[in-house]
Amino acid sequence: MTSEHAACRADLELVRRVLRGDQAALPDLSARLACVPRILRVRNARSGGTLDEHELADLCQDVLLILWRKLRQYDGEAVLPAWVYRIAALEYQNARRKKLRHASVSQLFGGGDDEEGPEPSVPLDREPWEFEDVYLGLARIGRDEARVIRLRHFDGRTFAEIAELLGIAESTAKDRYYRGIAELRPLLADRRSRS
Predict the structure, then answer these.
(1) What is the DSSP secondary structure assignment for residue 120, as one 8-state letter?
(2) Is domain 127-194 classified as CATH 1.20.1740.10?
(3) What is the mean pLDDT of each run of 10 residues along the chain (195 residues)?
């Protein structure tokens, strides 16, 4: 039996003990889950520090809660920290996309077209339906322009990434973006003035 296989079996037994209600196993499980804040901090650093310390702390608590709810799904095929990593990394990506999407949609309403400027601080408790005007406006402008705007604001991609993804020059991506924003702003202003 390899050391990794033995570690997987030990983690599986630890999880089973916790699920059976063995209170003595909780400190060991807690020690095994201590990797969550590290995973989130490393992912955040690699992504340019999108989330601040408070957002990371909240996300850490959310991930631990998700792990607790999914603990019965742990099957011992990988060591516990590897299983935790997959979940934590996915939750980090979801939180990052949500923040970038909300920040980017906010930029559409208030300006701020600088490519490298800091993302504005916006509340993260908004629902997608609150941006119905944006989605309707995007449906009314040129398809190529709308696609670049979606990639830039909803996916948080840079102009270089968009250009590579679409197989166009970076300058073309910027042209489509600014042309699309110019088309979109009056549509949004018109809808807001009627509401």
Answers:
(1) P
(2) no
(3) 83 95 93 92 87 91 93 92 91 86 60 42 41 75 89 84 91 92 82 56
